[in-house]
Amino acid sequence: MHNRAAVIAVDWGTSHLRMWPLDRSGKALDCRKSADGMRTVAKNDFAAVMDQHLKALGVPDDIPAIMCGMVGSRQGWQEAPYVSVPCNIGDPALGAVKIKNTARDIRILPGIANRSTENADVMRSEETQLLGLADQMGNALSGLVCMPGTHAKWVRVEEQRVLDFFTSLSGELFAALGAASVLKHALDGAGGDINADGNMFVEGVKQSLDEPATVLNRLFSVRPKSLLHDLNNDDAAAFISGTIIGQDIAGAKARFGDTGTVTLVGSGHLGALYTSALKIAGLSSQIVSGDELAVAGLAHAARLIWPERFNTI
Amino acid sequence: MHNRAAVIAVDWGTSHLRMWPLDRSGKALDCRKSADGMRTVAKNDFAAVMDQHLKALGVPDDIPAIMCGMVGSRQGWQEAPYVSVPCNIGDPALGAVKIKNTARDIRILPGIANRSTENADVMRSEETQLLGLADQMGNALSGLVCMPGTHAKWVRVEEQRVLDFFTSLSGELFAALGAASVLKHALDGAGGDINADGNMFVEGVKQSLDEPATVLNRLFSVRPKSLLHDLNNDDAAAFISGTIIGQDIAGAKARFGDTGTVTLVGSGHLGALYTSALKIAGLSSQIVSGDELAVAGLAHAARLIWPERFNTI
């Protein structure tokens, strides 16, 4: 029972929902995870699904909730229109949109967009992780933030402002080639075992940095190498991973130049691969676990929106 | 009935088999197409499948056959080991491997390989198209040959010699992103309708040539553009096509430099897209239909192997 929670924090994405009752210091008292992602919830059922989870946690009706994620997209519960760059990291919190027609006070954090025609881009949920980062790091959060994943985000941050960002199709390219290309056998089940300091990963990164134009050939190259030089599947997967991560970093350098230490939001294996690749690219990095950033960002936003519900820090 | 055919030409690939009885001038008398590709034929059944098709064409046992394609790979009927670059365009014909234990004289053309560890690559069936090109063009075949497709080949040719080549994962990348990525909806069913001179295709090509490092971002960019600027699926598909073809050409320029007019083996739509993209890249091109190159190459090879079966030219 969480009838004394200060606020409920909710990260409601496409495939999952996570819910944390927060105490008056902003600390999570519990975490409820569910597969009731946006994709499986009909437009008119968001309120009912939300209520059901809050009931299961024993949260009374008068406790407000702060949400982030695709639930605020056009296809979600209610659209929370993007804040445009450049903006303050706290702007999405200040621009949180109140859900209509609910007894409970529920707000959705907007994402952030670059609305230019040339560099149009969007993020939704990463702005909350950035808010969590700013909460942890304050003004030390400066330079480039790298958030690897299916759609990796590279964010240019300075003095608590988001100056610009872009998304790259890195993780999803690895997955798509593993699902539907001649690389299928090599990439099948790979990923978790790649050695971040192994020769093939390092070579993939280096070639992407040295000659980014030839990436389509380099992606194919593991196939003839397996035929002619007995390249095994593990080494092929490591090379492809290095090629894609190296290309991702080459793109960030081309777009933003060298902006000092990269703050790398990641944990576990992917974080280790990007740390190694950034080092090869001559960029120092500091790694921050992404696991708790969403709840930290939601807590930070809740404190800005409902200061009276929290202890003074 | 083709009981007076000089030779049987066979292109036996992964998914299809094509068979042409040739007359004494090397001209195809007929064309038999079948879905009995290598993939569906068990290792010990090649001879039976071959006989069955030859019977259907009414070809007697004493007429020899020349084959190309994956039937000569390690997983095929009998391996025809790759000829290494640099080599003469006619070397695969001279190195054709005779199938063991068949009454009929059947030869398989080997593919061509670059066996270096750095630029390892293989082709199998394109060497026969090159032979067909050489047959048609003679010494006018010089510079770069571009053979677009699932795995596009770029071949450096000079004075009837294959100096080097590489493969790029261009067509297959377009297909894989259409099958298994956030671009699925945009690319679904696209391809045939892309305007080779349309703004979005041209823009995709230009950006890949100008800044090849940022390709992972540019592949993603159509998604936010559809959200923020109502980019429609047709324009998104055109941009992705231009991006991939532009990146392919940027890779060829990085690898081989500018080698004069590009001989583009293609027909129909993909040929038009590459012609436009090569022009944007400042490369002139001459387009040659690929449809009849395989049979022309097989006829050329058969004439080298069994000169007595053909009329003197």
From TrEMBL, chains A, B:
Pfam families: DGOK. GO terms for biological process: D-galactonate catabolic process. It comes from Ahrensia marina. Coiled coil: none annotated. The lineage of its organism: Bacteria, Pseudomonadati, Pseudomonadota, Alphaproteobacteria, Hyphomicrobiales. GO terms for molecular function: 2-dehydro-3-deoxygalactonokinase activity. CDD domains: ASKHA_NBD_KDGal-kinase. InterPro entries: DGOK, DGOK_C, DGOK_N. It comes from the Bacteria. This is 2-dehydro-3-deoxygalactonokinase.
